[in-house]
Amino acid sequence: MDSIVVKGGQPLSGQIQIAGAKNAALTLMPATLLSEEPLTLTNAPRLSDIKTMTALLQSLGVEVTAMKDGNVQVLSSHALTSTTADYDIVRKMRASNLVLGPLLARHHQAVVSLPGGCAIGARPMDIHVTALEALGAEIELKDGYLHAVAKGGLKGAKVALRFASVGATENVLMAATLAKGTTVIENAAREPEIVDLVKCLRAMGAQIEGEGTSTITVEGVDRLGAASHAVVTDRIELGTYMLAPVFAGGEVECLGGRLDLVGSFVEKLDAAGVSVTETQAGLKVSRANGRAKAVDVTTEVFPGFPTDLQAQMMAMLCTAEGTSVLEEKIFENRFMHAPELVRMGAQIEVHGGTATVHGVDRLKGAPVMATDLRASVSLILAGLAAEGETIVSRVYHLDRGYEHVEEKLGAVGAQIERVTG
Ligand code: EPZ
Questions:
Q1: What is the rounded distance in angstroms from the CA atom of residue 10 to the CA atom of residue 388?
Q2: Sign of CA dihedral 385, 240, 374, 74
């Protein structure tokens, strides 16, 4: 298993190119199942999760051609051979459950393994199931698999999500594009990845309104056609690299960064005394003179503070001036990075979904262990600020969501290397 070794104390300077969004690509790729025509995705990120989704779609008979080292994906599902998503793939990546809605919509059947829990929570699928049943699907849980059928196809309906689940919104939205009649999704997720999915579905011929608001209306159509779509910038990778100069000092320009993607995150950076400047090419961040200030953070659905940036923010607040309180309201177990940061000298008390961080002057490098995707990158960021050497093990978590971290940070002056082993 690879590790990443970071030596702290080197101020950063330069530009980091932000990639296409993992969490957009993982819902755009299954959208190919809605049409027999090819779907071309450009600006696709080069990540292990994309490889996992590719393997899943290929197991269903989708032809996937990766070009330009994976930056372009051409997907074609004109000759499906299966409608079953196997446990051995789904358990590795929860987003595999996003084939459920498209398979039901076009093939009127699907067998999708329940993903099982993951490090950050139980991650049930009840909201997905209730929403698809509202469109007429019959879904039964058997041997750990959801067996779903839509006799005569799906029918448009009013769907009220009990919680603005991102994945459930994506599944029911894709299903509704081919359902007979009108579907109104209430309490829909508003994340930029949903907006990006709608742009792509519309290019394929879907009739959708209201994306980015809590109410999305879909007029079902008989079929969808070919499309080419550029994957939206990854707002979580963006937020992650915007924090890098706050840890290490210096200044970094994140190319492709857009303020509308990270509004609530930038508000918190402002409150912490970190200046963010919009440039022609993206967003530039420099360490305020002296230490950042403590701020309180509560994770919420978009446009609130994103849960996927909570670990990175906590790591930054470990050396802020004062005490910060972080509340994690989206997942039940998303503080696993806290004990690892404590190994580096941070002072953090966790009680249930609340973490209290007392800022210290400096962290000290130490061997630490990645536990989930976003926790792993928060430890690397902490290593940029720490005295001495930090060794982050189990970086396969990292490779799921970040392209070549050591290259991107190394190019702006960080002392960082990957040790294979
Ligand atoms: C998406 O996961 C993202 N993944 C997650 O990013 C992100 O953290 C999450 O949205 C929240 O923003 C992808 O887009 C591939 P949810 P998703 O359904 O769709 C509960 C990362 O690091 N829930 O909005 O699975 C659920 O347990 C990953 O890139 C139910 O109870 O998130 C969680 O507590 C991590 N029943 C909360 O809702 C359901 O049927 C939010 O889940 C569905 C969800």
A1: 11
A2: negative
- From CA 37, how far away is CA 34, in angstroms rounded? 9
Q: Is the CB of 402 under 6 A from ligand 1?
A: no
146 token code pair: 């959801």
Residues 6+ apart with CB under 8 A from 349: 355, 356
* pLDDT at 342 (0 to 100): 98
Q: How far does residue 166's CA lie from ligand 1's centre (Å)?
A: 6
118 catalytic residue (yes or no): yes
CA 50 – CA 54 distance, rounded (Å): 6
Give the residue, out of 166, 305, 333, 403, with the most ligand 1 atoms within 8 A of its beta carbon, to mutate for a pocket test.
166
CA distance 171 to 179: 13
- 421, 1 Cβ separation under 8 angstroms: yes
Closest CA to 85 of 75, 99, 102: 99
DSSP secondary structure, 395-409, as one string: THHHHTT-S-HHHHH
Residues 96-137: tens digit of each pLDDT: 999 999 999 999 999 999 887 677 777 789 999 999 999 999
Per-residue exposure over 317-340, b if at least 16 CB sit within 10 Å of its own CB, e if not = bbbbeeebebebbbbebbbbbbeb
Q: Could you say which DSSP state residue 288 is in?
A: P
Nearest CA to ligand 1 atom 35: 308
Q: What is the DSSP string of 290-345?
A: SPPBP--EEB-STTSB-GGGHHHHHHHHTTSBSEEEEE--S-SS--THHHHHHHTT
Q: Establish whether residue 330 lines the binding site of ligand 1, counting it when its CB lies within 6 angstroms of any ligand atom.
A: yes
| Residues whose CB falls within 8 Å of the CB of residue 354, separated by 6 or more in sequence, listed in order | 325, 326, 327, 328
Single out the residue of 354, 350, 409 nearest to residue 379, CA to CA: 409
Does residue 117 have its Cβ closer than 6 Å to ligand 1? no
Ligand 1 atom with least separation from CA of 125:
40
- pTM of this prediction? 0.97
- Residue 257 has a pLDDT of 97
Give me 40's structure tokens: 């071309």
Greatest mean pLDDT range, 86-90, 327-331, 394-398: 327-331
3-state secondary structure string across 159-185: EECCCCCHHHHHHHHHHHCCCECEEEE
Over residues 341-359, the pLDDT tens digits come to 999 999 999 999 999 999 9
